[in-house]
Specification:
Low-confidence stretches of chain B: none
Chains: A alpha/beta (about 475), B alpha/beta (about 230), C alpha/beta (about 240)
Strand order of the largest sheet of chain B: 1-12-7-4-2-3
Largest interface: A-B, 99 and 79 residues
Largest sheet of chain A: 6 strands, parallel
Strand content of chain B: 15-25%
Strand content of chain A: 5-15%
Oligomer: heterotrimer
Low-confidence stretches of chain A: none
Helix content of chain A: 40-55%
Mean pLDDT of chain A: 95
Largest sheet of chain B: 6 strands, parallel
Strand order of the largest sheet of chain A: 1-10-7-4-2-3
Shape of chain A: elongated
Number of helices of chain A: 22
Structural class of chain A: alpha/beta
Number of helices of chain B: 7
């Protein structure tokens, strides 16, 4: 995995005053979270749904080996091919091998975060294969040579002006900024690509173990086209994205679409149960399922196992106040927002991603909306704890907290410190406010005033007069 | 297969236990959706189905089978249809849809094995309208459920810009739950290659969250409920 | 007579002693006997949230000991109450000796408004404070403790006090403990948005239940020269003591 060219601070600096993000991200957040709130209110018993969805996901993860085995057996029974990929490279190897065997010239893709995770497009393009993203948002950012800035709305950071420019370049003529015209252009252009593509690659929202099915949720219909028109269909799934039976699928699909966009159901829910069958006159002749680990199994048996329950709805992004102000790219990884801050360091380690767990005020908005009850903000604290235990934070911080622990467990020391606070800060304060502080206080006073510690602490007042 | 075993053994090891096999889900004692629609009458379910589709820019006609011709006339006019592709489905034949199209001069093709696949595909990509019969409708969402396969080709409901779906009003069930039960009942006989749940027209918000219809699938959908 | 021990919290102790005094005054007014165990220090949340759990445990043990004899503990902070109630049992889940003691403190600790409404079930009388205000709902109190309505139930009983609804009231103000200093540029945007919403209500006073949030928002209001003051719910109840 190549390092991000910018540091976390640089990425934040770049994003935070970006005039486009400032408008687009809160706008998208408000729409999506508003929709989500309405949709879950309609249920009337959302807590019961969340409990069930969480229980389903926990049970599946706890028995992942059994359900994956059942899934693989059923896919094979239905005539499909199953590939277990331990690493990103393994998955890339499987796909490139199939592409080579089929002598593929062009590949059409429907949205797949896992394929982003393994940088599949880059590898296929290096082989000289034309790879086209068909989800409108993904298509836009592919043309712009960018990465998704939101899990379900990958191009929210692009304006219609930018999109019109990108499309005009492909069209070889000037297109207007009208949404309908731009969409019509995308429909026609991508339809041609669909009809020509040799292979369709999709992600997998949920696999169903009992029937060997791959279920795809989409609004545009590109996932249907991807799994209908090319002769070969390859679905790539994170190994945790399955449910035992259709009964459980009901609950997780219902929660996914409501939490993601506020829809009671997406326009299309498509279950692929096999390649085309004998009597069929359409559909792929071959079906491949790639099941990817890529570091996920390291979370099993740890506090982070919970994160494998994630169904990628992005509700946590849509309520996150940090995401609201920095957008998705500042996180730097494939997954952004609270789930990205938890997941990215797990998949790729702390060396490159040590700041992410600190990019949160721990307000808990993410945990509150998570449809499968992942304690996201608690897992951010868990990451901080693990970094402390690994000795990663700077010495100054370690010493500060050592001192804190010392004082907080010794009332006399603590008492002394509290009662010295006013005097000790006298030189910094003016009219009861500190406007320029040293050390860690500087970060605070860069933005806001700090009241000077009171002349008499509460405890001193109590001792002298408060007891009555 | 060695690879699969190694993969699964690793998971068991990380989970800190022996390999498991043949696990089944627990018996869920309650269902969060129980009671959501149980008290609703058939008529209420049908109304809900229609309401939901209307909210998605989709018109629903509720008709007697004998009025099918008139509805087709209306659909043809409304969407300016000149050509069509249809499922080779007894239920559509019973409603005399191909013969009505003949009478109306609508160029149409029925999806069956007497026609070369390339022709089927090219036709579906070219015509104005796709027509299918759905096996179920879901009241809660306004979804139609298609069990594709054989003469029931998936491109019919996907490639043309306008999609007409016909279903019996007796097949309107409360929600996804009943569809899942139906699918589970079919498991022993095997499932078709593809099952689709379709809820209104294809949509996207990827350009500045501005809603646009028909970016990939049909942007116009019309549903007919037959008594 | 009901007996209560006050857990003052570091921020109130050092920066806002008047909030502590208000709590004492209000509780006494409603017939509660208040004491203040001098051995209390900090709940340990700054260390806990930063991942220094050994240090957080040291602080927690001190707090548990300090309040071991108390019948009930009341604190003017939703955040610190959430720390004790929610995370103390977590911190000691592997420690057989301390776990029951941690749980015992967790079970008897209440945030101020929560205590007033749920335990004391007070009906406020003769309160009058002619002010236009809005209320900041703090994250740890509403989400961590699940206490949302209680402050509003109290404030609604204060005559003359008009509490305007705050737009985006569920959104964090950007405090987040060390986050405010460590990621100050992001925190700045968050607090600025909060200030914008507060201003939009036309309120003269921002009322809250967590001094971390109030210090953050108040500090930004002061820095940007906005004439809006901040008050804790307990101060409102103490100040509004005179009916005209």
């Amino acid at each position: 995995m190549s390092a991000h060219p910018l540091s976390f601070d640089q990425r934040v600096e770049k994003a935070i005053d970006d005039p486009i993000l400032k408008k687009a991200v809160p706008f998208a957040q408000d729409r999506l979270r508003g929709g989500r709130n309405t949709a879950v209110e309609q249920l009337g018993n959302v807590e019961e749904w969340r409990e069930r969805a969480s229980a389903i996901r926990s049970h599946t993860i706890e028995n992942l080996d059994s359900y994956l085995e059942q899934l693989a057996n059923n896919v094979r029974k239905n005539g499909g091919h199953v590939h277990f990929a331990e690493t990103a490279q393994d998955a890339v190897d499987v796909v490139t091998r199939i592409a080579r065997e089929k002598n593929a010239k062009s590949i059409i893709k429907s949205k797949s975060m896992v394929s982003e995770e393994i940088h599949l497009n880059k590898h296929l393009e290096e082989m000289g294969i034309k790879v086209i993203e068909s989800d409108l948002g993904e298509y836009i950012i592919q043309l712009a040579n960018e990465t998704p800035s939101h899990i379900i709305a990958p191009a929210i950071h692009k304006t219609r002006t930018e999109i019109a420019e990108l499309f005009s370049e492909v069209a070889g003529r000037k297109l207007s900024e009208d949404t309908t015209e731009l969409c019509q252009f995308a429909r026609e252009t991508l339809r041609e690509e669909f009809l020509q593509a040799d292979i369709g690659i999709s992600g997998c929202n949920f696999a169903v173990a009992e029937s060997g099915s791959v279920v795809l949720v989409s609004n545009e219909g590109n996932a249907r086209l991807t799994t209908t028109l090319p002769k070969v269909h390859i679905a790539i799934m994170g190994m945790e994205r399955l449910v035992p039976t259709w009964e459980e699928l009901d609950v997780v699909v219902s929660m996914l679409t409501r939490s993601a966009t506020g829809q009671k159901i997406s326009v299309y829910v498509t279950a692929i149960n096999s390649a085309r069958q004998v009597e069929d006159l359409d559909g792929p002749e071959e079906f491949h399922l790639v099941i990817l680990d890529n570091g996920r199994s390291d979370s099993l048996g740890t506090a982070y196992q919970e994160v494998l329950k994630c169904i990628r709805c992005s509700a946590c992004l849509n309520v996150c106040p940090v995401y609201r102000h920095i957008g998705g790219h500042a996180y730097g990884g494939v997954y952004s927002g609270p789930i990205g801050a938890v997941l990215t360091p797990l998949l790729e380690g702390y060396d490159q991603w040590e700041e992410l767990p600190y990019a949160s005020s721990l307000c808990g908005a993410c945990t509150e909306v998570c449809p499968v009850k992942i304690p996201l903000h608690d897992l951010l604290i868990e990451h901080r704890k693990d970094q402390v235990e690994a000795g990663r934070p700077p010495l100054s911080e370690k010493l500060a907290f050592k001192g804190f622990g010392f004082a907080a467990s010794r009332p006399s020391v603590y008492d002394f410190a509290i009662n010295m606070a006013h005097k000790g800060t006298g030189f910094m304060a003016k009219d009861g406010m500190i406007t320029q502080g040293p050390g860690i206080v500087k970060g605070w006073t860069d933005v806001r005033d700090l009241p000077q510690p009171a002349k008499q602490s509460f405890r001193d007042w109590w001792k002298k007069e408060g007891k009555e | 297969m060695v690879q699969q075993e190694a993969f699964l053994n690793k998971l068991a090891k990380k989970l800190g236990r022996e390999r498991r096999t043949g696990v089944t889900p627990p018996q869920w004692n309650t269902q969060p959706y129980a009671g959501m629609y149980e008290s609703k009458t058939k008529e209420e379910r049908i109304e809900l189905f229609i309401q939901n589709l209307n909210a998605l820019n989709t018109e629903v006609d509720r008709i007697d089978p004998k009025d099918m011709g008139a509805v087709l006339e209306k659909v043809i006019q409304k969407f300016n249809i000149k050509s069509s592709v249809l499922w080779d489905d007894k239920r559509l034949h019973d409603l005399q849809i191909p013969s009505t199209f003949d009478a109306m001069g609508i160029d149409h093709l029925v999806w069956n094995s007497s026609i070369p696949e390339d022709t089927l595909r090219e036709t579906a990509a070219r015509v104005d309208l796709g027509v299918t019969y759905a096996d179920m409708g879901l009241a809660e969402t306004g979804s139609v459920v298609l069990f594709n396969g054989g003469g029931k080709g998936r491109p019919v409901s996907l490639l043309p810009p306008v999609y007409l779906c016909i279903l019996s009003e007796d097949s309107i069930v409360p929600r996804l739950t009943q569809a899942m039960e139906t699918i589970q009942q079919q498991l022993p006989q095997g499932l078709p290659a593809c099952i689709n749940f379709i809820t209104g027209p294809s949509r996207t918000g990827d350009i500045e969250m501005d809603l646009a219809l028909g970016v990939h699938g049909p942007g116009k959908v019309h549903v007919v409920l037959v008594k | 007579m009901m007996k209560v021990s006050l857990f003052i919290t570091c921020l109130a102790d050092v920066f806002y002693p008047q909030v502590g005094k208000s709590v004492v005054e209000v509780l006494r007014q409603y017939g509660v006997e208040v004491d203040f165990p001098m051995d209390q220090t900090c709940c340990g949340q700054p260390a806990f949230n930063s991942g220094y759990h050994a240090e957080a445990r040291e602080a927690a043990k001190q707090l548990i000991q300090a309040f071991e004899q108390s019948e009930r503990v009341v604190t003017p902070s939703g955040s610190c109450a959430a720390m004790v109630r929610h995370y103390y049992p977590e911190l000691f889940k592997q420690d057989e000796a301390w776990l029951p003691r941690a749980k015992s403190l967790a079970d008897k600790t209440y945030e101020f408004s929560e205590f007033m409404v749920q335990v004391l079930k007070v009906k406020l009388e003769d309160l009058y404070l002619p002010t236009k205000a809005t209320y900041h709902q703090s994250c740890h109190m509403s989400r961590g403790l699940g206490v949302k309505e209680e402050p509003h139930l109290l404030l609604a009983q204060v005559q003359g006090l008009e509490v305007k609804e705050l737009p985006y009231c569920n959104d964090c103000c950007g405090f987040g403990g060390t986050f405010a200093a460590k990621m100050s540029d992001i925190s700045e945007k968050m607090v600025d948005e909060k200030v914008k919403h507060i201003e939009s209500t036309g309120a003269d006073v921002l009322i809250g239940s967590d001094l971390g949030c109030l210090m953050n928002i108040g500090g930004r209001l002061s820095r940007t020269g906005k004439p809006i003051s901040v008050m804790h719910v307990a101060e409102v109840l103490a100040k509004g003591g005179v009916k005209k």
